[in-house]
């Protein structure tokens, strides 16, 4: 028997890269039936919720800070009503002439009464309890400590009973809590990324173990570490993408439910905790980041295992 | 050009041990030249498979030197080994087919690993399957093939890339005499195209089927004798030379 012409054609070689769907098929795969896409889906969902929470808190704090940045309150603490009125008018005169003051507004008695009603009951301002006169001031600059002290000094002569407070100082503890929650969200996101990478590492090791025979065959046929790693990368990247999309959907659904609950609080500050377009882009990028983490983890794991082979 | 430069493979005083066990191969020295056909014989446990493992770069020796295609493969960085492995064709004793790939995809594997364009894969693979009489089973998975059919797929996979060196470990062990002869003729055809062929077998009848072949015999990890390794004297400038110490 001699070699047929077809045999010569059969023995040709070329040098295009090895990859694609046919390469991926070397690793048997039960996509979605296996746990990996679901593990990644859960991780991505939790990451989306944690990141969305952190971003919403950031926006809430930024909005509150911007709103209160130039805000200050002047309280005229004078027990005698007539003197309190005189000093309040004097304060208004000083404020109207102060170039650092953008606007000011004397808080009407009806508004004060409404503010105090939950604590002191109806007609608090008519009672024997002296209620300070309040003047809401908006400065042209930031109402920091220096600005507050400067305004206090200007009012000292005309209204010795006046006390100036930056409005942002009232929310200082709240900002502290928000900052702590933001750090918590960042830590959660980092922890979830680490957990995802660990899950992929375990999955890649397991896949390597169960496909050891196939890997050895490809290895002995001249497959490079990079080629073999690409097979696993592709497989795990597909799992991560599927899981990531599912996780994003689950996370967004969770966010919608939480947003509804917070909206029902009717708090002005909470209303400032919406998400900006760039935040949505960040959330949309989380599954892609998951794919990148999974792919890199799979590659590093497989290459480390292959280096132990000849 | 020196002899060792023109050689496909040269072993110089090679020894192999697994772990801390005693050596399974000892003082192996020989040279394989391009276009020659060799049979490697010996009783079970003589070290044939271990020697083949060294030949197809699945194992590094414990001592000695191995040159392949003019390069010292002992000190070669492992990142460069794939380019040498792609010049080899290997028929494993246990076939080592990828279980979840069809016969077609198993045969196509070396071409794909070497980067042959997908458009140039189908025809050669179909021709090769036809050659080994399995064109009707091209979609079959290894588990559904008989032992003989699996062996033919393994052989088709080993020769599809037209290797410079074909190493076959008992390649006719699971086929009937007619198919064994047919496969041997395939090896001869490949040999005529320039491939050096090394066939490990304990089938003495097979040795007589290729009169041009040279025979290396292993006995307890050593080549049978220092000078009479070859049952047939090598032609000038071709053939295996050497022996154990």
TrEMBL record, chain A:
InterPro entries in alphabetical order: FtsX
Transmembrane segments: 38-57, 180-204, 240-260, 280-306
Biological processes, Gene Ontology terms: cell division
Keywords (A to Z) from UniProt: Cell cycle, Cell division, Membrane, Transmembrane, Transmembrane helix
Cited PANTHER family: CELL DIVISION PROTEIN FTSX (PTHR47755:SF1)
Protein name: Cell division protein
Automatic annotation (TrEMBL), chain B:
Gene Ontology terms describing biological process: cell division
Signal peptide: none
SMART domains in UniProt: AAA (SM00382)
Top-level taxonomic group: Bacteria
Keywords: ATP-binding, Cell cycle, Cell division, Cell membrane, Membrane, Nucleotide-binding, Transport
Gene3D superfamilies linked to this entry: P-loop containing nucleotide triphosphate hydrolases (3.40.50.300)
Any one GO molecular function term: ATP binding
InterPro entries membership: AAA+_ATPase, ABC_transporter-like_ATP-bd, ABC_transporter-like_CS, ABC_transpr_LolD-like, Cell_div_FtsE, MacB-like_ATP-bd, P-loop_NTPase
The ABC transporter domain, residue ranges: 9-244
Pfam families: ABC_tran
Subcellular location: Cell inner membrane; Cell membrane
Lipid bilayer topology: Peripheral membrane protein
Similarity comment: family membership: Belongs to the ABC transporter superfamily.
Quaternary structure (record): Homodimer. Forms a membrane-associated complex with FtsX.
Its job: Part of the ABC transporter FtsEX involved in cellular division. Important for assembly or stability of the septal ring.
Name of the featured protein: Cell division ATP-binding protein FtsE
Lineage of origin: Bacteria, Pseudomonadati, Pseudomonadota, Alphaproteobacteria, Sphingomonadales
Gene name in the database record: ftsE
